[in-house]
Amino acid sequence: MKKHFDPDAAASEGSGIYGLPFTPDEAKVVVIPVPFEATTSYGGGTSRGPAAVFEASKQVDLLDHETGRPYEAGIAMLPIPRKVVSWNAKAKKSGRRRVRAVNEISESVNDWVYETTRDLLHDGKMPVVLGGDHSVPFGAICAYGERYPHMGILHLDAHCDLRDAYEGFTYSHASIFHNVIMRTRLRKLVQVGVRDVGSREIRLIENSFGRIRTFFDDELAARKEHGVPWGDIADEIVDELPYDVYLSWDIDGLDPTLCPGTGTPVPGGLSWNEAIGLLRAIRRAKKRIIGLDLCEVAPGKTEWDANVGARLLYKMIGFALATQ
Predict the structure, then answer these.
(1) pLDDT higher than 60, residue 3
(2) The pLDDT value given to residue 4
């Protein structure tokens, strides 16, 4: 930690994410912004998520009551990548009339995210993808899967994201985990908070031979109504995961009052404390969070979405470091 840095002071001009003084070379945790939303099928704005979270992060107090001082490990964010901004603009301009062009651009995004994540892992960093829509972490998941072949994914989302080439887009935000299941060797996908699902997605889950375990939101609500403590439910969810856990969290897995600007909000979802309770359960189980992504933060008419996103990201990073 640089001697002149005061974690209790306001963020200084020109400081990094969370007002920190680290460069990516100095930081243990390196955030990869991916401002891409070309496959968005409803509301837009997630391409502006990384920049909005960066600005909102400077209002987050750095001492976390649960995880201590995550900032001391070093957290830095890479510059907004101009090539991804350009790809996003080009792909959105192509639209649904040129699905092939969007698919090709999405492959370029996947390759860039994969290579960036792989290189950071090689350097001993913990890469964190900040979307953008939920299509963007695919390359990171591939890179993490190579480094941690026995990992499982804890997927928080209002949707299963198990659709095949949704609206013709092979790498749609609604298809990311169809791609993960079909194109990687991931051993276990555990989904929480799902409340929008298609019949084909249900069949994929049922025919996955236990590779996919989905905790539907209505089932969780019914159990809570009958007095089952959330801590017990969270322990059950985490028990489905292997030792190495990757977090892939779409912010719309939360109650939409916490993320009203997100592209596809759905009533229901987890409260703030229930989401953090999942992280507590991972630590209780003595499992290890090896990496993570946070997607679908879309700045709305207020700073609320970015505020919640920045705080959720800090919590996720804090628990990841605490379980190392």
Answers:
(1) no
(2) 74
Residue 96's pLDDT is 63
Query: Which pLDDT score, from 0 to 100, does residue 1 have?
Result: 46
What would the 3-class secondary structure string for 251-315 be? HHHECHHHCCCCCCCCCCCECHHHHHHHHHHHHHCCCEEEEEEEECCCCCCCCHHHHHHHHHHHH
**CB-count burial class (<10 Å; 0-12, 13-18, 19+) for 259:** buried
Alpha-carbon gap, residue 8 to 15, rounded angstroms: 14
Dist CA 269 CA 271 (whole Å): 7
Q: Which residues of 25-47 are buried (b: 16+ CB within 10 A; e: fewer)?
A: eebbbbbbbbbbbbbbbeeebbb
Task: Kindly report the CATH class assigned to 17-322.
Answer: alpha beta
126 sits in which H/E element: strand 126-131
pTM recorded for the entire structure: 0.96
Boundaries of every domain in the chain: 17-322
Query: Of the given ranges (170-174, 180-184, 277-281), which has the lowest mean pLDDT?
Result: 170-174
* Full DSSP string of 147-176: H-TT-EEEEE-SB----SSGGG-TT-TTTH
Q: Kindly state the average pLDDT of the residues 199-228.
A: 97
